[in-house]
């Protein structure tokens, strides 16, 4: 889950396809308040891509596409993923592709940062950048833009995953799960299922949502946003229905609201324990052998755990060989 400090949203110069009705956000030291006269627009087609890889899926024909929302400045997270689970392009005989989804950065150094992002894109060809302000409050927009890209650029993939940039991912276990007999190929979404969750009305909370934005006291069933997997017929359906679902700033619960409107229920994973929130501060390398996802503390921790896991599994296979 991204952790972005944000201040006032900066909008770009309008163009025929540019941003419309970006949220005005003000923050104070005591609360996160939102100008409700200008709701942010989650509908993905209000934005357009300024960095894109429109032909990559057609060329590679992936079975699984991993979509990672990440802040423009967070190069360390992207490089850690590229050197670990993002470097695995074929798993159990299936092609896997990874893309990073960025918005626009604000601040005094935004032009210098944008140039660095452009050069990074030329080097790696895995960056997708759209014309919304990249803030924590706008994660709902970011998620729906991910869905729009999958629907319009990568519809031939069988499955996709939205996974946060601070996550460990065991692709062997994930692809093995998706290849199990009986896993649906349509209207399927799984991860950590959240049910009967209260909407937070405390204005001091980072997860505050006003009654005007979401009037119900509880969220519909949804998947915890750190990482959820879905059949790739869903992105287009989610984008289309989002036109009729009022946006609010809790992105994973908003996807749940869209699913509810579609009449699609999130599914428990075949082994729910594989989607872990945390493995704990005192972890062992073998703790990562059986999981699919878990949250980590830093990009360097991901690199260290990955190296340790590869050494552990190599030793284990030698013993059993």
TrEMBL record:
Chief place where the protein resides: Golgi
Topology of this chain in the membrane: Single-pass type II membrane protein
InterPro entries linked to this entry: Glyco_trans_31
One Gene Ontology CC term in the entry: Golgi membrane
PANTHER family reported for this sequence: BETA-1,3-N-ACETYLGLUCOSAMINYLTRANSFERASE, HEXOSYLTRANSFERASE
GO biological process: lipid metabolic process; protein O-linked glycosylation
EC number: 2.4.1.-
Protein name: Hexosyltransferase
Native source organism of the sequence: Chanos chanos
GO molecular function, one term: N-acetyl-beta-D-glucosaminide beta-(1,3)-galactosyltransferase activity
Compartments where located: Golgi apparatus membrane
Xref: Gene3D superfamilies: 3.90.550.50
Organismal lineage: Eukaryota, Metazoa, Chordata, Craniata, Vertebrata
């Amino acid at each position: 889950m991204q952790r972005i400090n944000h201040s006032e949203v900066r909008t770009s110069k309008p163009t025929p396809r540019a941003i419309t009705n970006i949220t005005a956000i003000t923050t104070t030291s005591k609360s996160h308040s939102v100008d409700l006269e200008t709701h942010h627009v989650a509908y993905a087609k209000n934005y357009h891509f300024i960095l894109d890889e429109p032909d990559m899926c057609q060329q590679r024909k992936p079975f699984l596409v991993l979509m990672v929302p990440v802040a423009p400045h967070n190069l360390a997270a992207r490089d850690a993923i590229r050197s670990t689970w993002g470097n695995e392009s074929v798993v159990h005989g299936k092609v896997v592709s990874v893309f990073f989804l960025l918005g626009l950065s604000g601040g005094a150094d935004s032009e210098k940062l944008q140039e660095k992002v452009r050069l990074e894109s030329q080097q790696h060809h895995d960056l997708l950048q759209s014309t919304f302000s990249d803030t924590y409050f706008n994660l709902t927009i970011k998620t729906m833009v991910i869905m729009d890209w999958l629907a319009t650029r990568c519809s031939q993939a069988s499955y996709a995953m939205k996974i946060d940039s601070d996550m460990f991912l065991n692709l062997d276990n994930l692809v093995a799960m998706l290849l199990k007999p009986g896993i649906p190929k349509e209207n399927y979404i799984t991860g950590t299922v959240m049910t009967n969750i209260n909407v937070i009305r405390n204005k001091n909370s980072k997860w505050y949502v006003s009654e005007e934005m979401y009037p119900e006291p509880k969220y519909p069933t949804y998947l915890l946003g750190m990482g959820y997997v879905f059949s790739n017929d869903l992105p287009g359906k989610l984008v289309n229905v989002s036109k009729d679902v009022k946006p609010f700033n809790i992105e994973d619960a908003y996807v749940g609201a869209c699913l509810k409107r579609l009449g699609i229920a999130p599914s428990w994973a075949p082994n729910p324990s594989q989607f872990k929130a945390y493995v704990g501060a005192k972890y062992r390398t073998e703790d990562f052998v059986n999981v699919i996802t878990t949250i980590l503390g830093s990009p360097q921790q991901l690199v260290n755990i990955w190296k340790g896991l590869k050494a552990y599994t190599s030793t284990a296979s030698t013993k059993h060989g």
